[in-house]
Amino acid sequence: MVHRGASALSLPGDWPAHPDPILALNGMGSFDWDLDSGLFHMDARAHEIFDLRPDEYDGDPATLAVRVPPNEAIRLDELVSQAIKDGSENYGAYFRLRLRDGSLRWTHTQGYIRRDGTGRPRRIVGIVRDATDELSDLAARDEAAALDDARREQTNVVQLTTAALAHARTVQDVIDVLKDTQGLTHLGATSLVMGLVEAGRIRLVAEGPEGSFVPGTLVTRIDEPYPMSEVVRTLTPRFIESADEFAAGYPVLWPHITDLRITSAAYLPLIVQARPIGAMGLLYSNREGFTQEERNILVALGSSIAQSLQRAMFYEQEKDIAQGLQQAMLPRTIPSVHGADVAVRYRAATIGGTLGRDIGGDWYDLIPLPGGRVGAVIGDVQGHDTHAAAVMGQLRIVLKAYAAEGHPPATVMARASVFLHELDTERFATCLYAEADLSTGVVQLVRAGHIDPLLRAADGTCRRVHVPGGLPLGLSAEFGGLEYPVGTIELDPGHILLLATDGLVEQPGADLDDGMRGLAALVAAGPDDVRGLADRLIDVAEERDGDDDVALLLLRRRGLDTPQTGGRLQQHVAPGDPEALTAARHMIRAAVRAWGAGDRADEIELVADELITNALMHTEGAAILTLRVLTGGDRRLRVEVEDSSSALPRRREAGENGVSGRGLLLVDLLADVWGVEARGGGKCVWCEFAVRERD
């Protein structure tokens, strides 16, 4: 204690101060310390607090050393000296007293420093009181606050983990959340194990840290002596509070995990609707025992994890079913096509983790056709569910059937639209159908509400092919719009035709035209090989992680291996089908232009039209129109119309008022040469036109 020496002559006239009776009533003692004389006066209550009898204290502060431990005395002296030096008016401190029975008591003192006119400190008047109860209450409050903080931290971990689990779609997602550094590791767990119940056994699906796998526990029976088996059998959590308890309870398992230095563990059954779907174990290496609050939190966490696992398992089952249905509806194989390289790809969308929505109505198809032709189809049925996939499967089959029957592209699309309209569904579909003659490179395109195709040239440049279009399938029949204009392009050797669904192009907030330009740039910069290019496009779709399916078909016309006699196109024209006749005329015009015979286009079209009309009027059944280019000597374009009648046509003069009989006269007048050939049960009427060599 601070000691100034003793001199009665220096005592102030009002020394010692008389304590306020209220202090005693509140259990406080008082003191008056004269700094000049060094005398330290205490009242009776102060003597009681210091556990000193009046005859044991002589007023010298040094005498208090028997009650104030040295370290406490040093701390008090430094506090008082600093207050005097700083010019402070008061100070306060908690310190411990050692009572006569040797026990320690918390005490509080507060002193008021009195100074003279010059600022010199003369006296310290203050109080002392027993602070045992106060600090006990404070310690209890601190302990309660610490417990509340720990509880809040644990609850926060549970809430954060539960929130993260809400976004988990697969079992692996659930495991990743639990093993994440922001997850259960905040609860202090050293290791995590998890198993799922499958056919009366427990299959281990997660264990950590790496290297902690116990041989023989990958698949275990529920009746085996393991803690996860026990909690699955009993549906009751198992809290292991010490290493000795672990070793005694599970002697088969314990020797394999001693390197983890486990001191306690919590094994929780994962229960959904009163049925165990698995079990989880949290192993600790830095704690022993669990409070009731901790047990409740872990049980609640186990319930949340069980719900997430069940949801993930349902999702995976639904996804397997959806993917199986999708694969069943899409073509299992793509037929090889002579003269072309083909690549197809499909990517299912993932929409917000919703069960059953990783499937859609996008499809592709490749249809071999007679005469070296091939049909390429890309389409998209509205919706992302199993119903969309089912509609897609039916639509794909009928569209393929219509094309295989020989109908022209416009008729194929119109009939498919009627079919979809007559189905018991409210779905519509967009579609793009391309019919290519690989010998000539002429491609006829029909579009039903679908995005345009792209054409990449042999030099790598890529452009959008604008195709006139009609309404989406299913809507055209409803609104009376069954007309589908036919566009024509020429596919040179090395050219690549790209058909795709809008999932490859559209992005939220982006313009479709911008998307098409971006896709064209991507195709131009991609590999020359169609398979490599298809993989590149699907990789980009995966990186975007869009919420729509993606289907694409790439068709590259190969260069001819040997010199050919010329191109060849064929068209089936059914009786009573004006659209087929229109499509045939369109094909004739496109082919004549593509083959460099534009100067005789009108003559060729008129003659072919006359031959087709004669076949439909005078015979039963369909007519087959064939156009081909013949080389060898002069270059000629040959038109053939085949029907099922063996009756030969007769050329005759028309009467004055008649209209019949003029057809063959017209053919004879316009064609360079013509004739008739027997074809099994029918015949073929042909004619040829000399055309100039192509530049």
In words, what does this structure look like?
The protein is of the alpha+beta class and 695 residues long. The chain has 16 helices and 27 strands. A hairpin with a 2-residue loop joins strand 10 and strand 11 (275-284). The termini are far apart. The model is unreliable at 3-9, 352-357 and 561-565 (pLDDT under 50).
Unreliable sequence segments: 3-9, 352-357, 561-565
Cα Rg: 48 Å
Question: How many β-strand stretches?
Answer: 27
Report the principal-axis shape: elongated
How much helix, percentage-wise, in residues? 25-40%
Structural classification: alpha+beta
The separation of the N and C termini measures 119 Å
Strands of the biggest beta sheet: in what spatial order? Answer: 8-7-6-11-10-9
Q: What count of helical segments does DSSP give?
A: 16
Instruction: Please outline the major beta sheet.
Output: 6 strands, antiparallel
Query: Strand share of the residues?
Result: 25-35%
Mean pLDDT: 82
SSE layout and pairings?
Layout: H1 21-25, E1 28-34, E2 40-42, H2 44-49, H3 70-86, E3 90-98, E4 104-115, E5 121-130, H4 132-165, H5 171-179, E6 191-198, E7 201-208, E8 219-221, H6 227-234, E9 238-240, H7 243-249, H8 254-257, E10 264-272, E11 275-284, H9 292-329, E12 340-347, E13 361-369, E14 373-381, H10 386-404, H11 409-422, E15 429-437, E16 442-448, E17 454-456, E18 462-464, E19 469-470, E20 486-490, E21 496-500, H12 512-524, H13 530-544, E22 550-557, E23 568-573, H14 578-594, H15 601-618, E24 623-630, E25 636-643, H16 663-670, E26 673-679, E27 682-690
Parallel strand pairs: 16-19
Antiparallel strand pairs: 1-2, 1-5, 3-4, 4-5, 6-7, 6-11, 7-8, 9-10, 10-11, 12-22, 13-14, 14-15, 15-16, 16-20, 17-18, 17-21, 21-22, 23-24, 24-25, 25-27, 26-27
Helix pairs in contact: 4-9, 9-10, 10-11, 14-15, 15-16
